[in-house]
Design a protein that fits this description.
- The chain is mainly α and 161 residues long.
- 66% of the residues lie in helices and 0% in strands.
- The chain has eight helices and no strands.
- The two termini are 26 Å apart.
- The model has no long low-confidence stretch (mean pLDDT 82).
Length: 161
């Protein structure tokens, strides 16, 4: 099972590198192995362009960015994390604000890991991959009205408070 970032020691790694490692760990957990997401596997089987955990890592990052900006406003360090996730060279800032942002995104990942499988899948497809409600509903095999309900509940579950 995916161990949330708070369950694991960072072993002296920089905050940004911990974030990247956790994105990769969660993507692998969702895509491969015995505990892989059944909802995600079923939904992505109809997507010709699906590229496995590498794609899901980007979806998770997009979702944490969306949630972070929704709850806390636009971030000064978003470009740094974006470049890190894309594999481009970055010089990680040492500022406390950056560490605060990364901690908030890791918190979103922890909450995402605890969501029911279909909630997590719906959020990843809709918010992470950017599919429309109609396309997400189709690949998940549910009605658009049902998907809207699932998305509402999933977003409520991710609220900070």
């Amino acid at each position: 099972m995916f161990e949330s970032p708070s369950q694991r020691a960072s072993h002296g790694q920089g905050t940004g590198w911990v974030y990247l490692a956790e994105l990769e760990n969660m993507a692998i957990w969702l895509c491969d192995g015995d505990e892989a997401s059944a909802s995600l596997r079923a939904a992505t089987s109809s997507m010709d362009t699906f590229r496995g955990s590498a794609m899901v890592k980007r979806w998770i990052h997009a979702l944490t960015t969306f949630e972070f900006e929704t709850e806390f406003g636009a971030s000064a360090f978003s470009d740094t994390l974006e470049r890190l996730v894309e594999g481009r060279r970055v010089r990680l800032p040492n500022g406390i604000a950056f560490e605060t942002e990364v901690a908030a995104r890791l918190s979103v990942m922890e909450q995402l890991a605890r969501l029911p499988d279909n909630y997590r899948c719906a959020l990843l497809l809709k918010e992470g991959h950017g599919l429309s409600v109609e396309r997400t509903a189709k690949v998940m095999g549910v009605s658009p009205a049902s998907l809207r309900s699932v998305l509402y509940r999933a977003r409520r579950s991710l609220r900070f408070g």
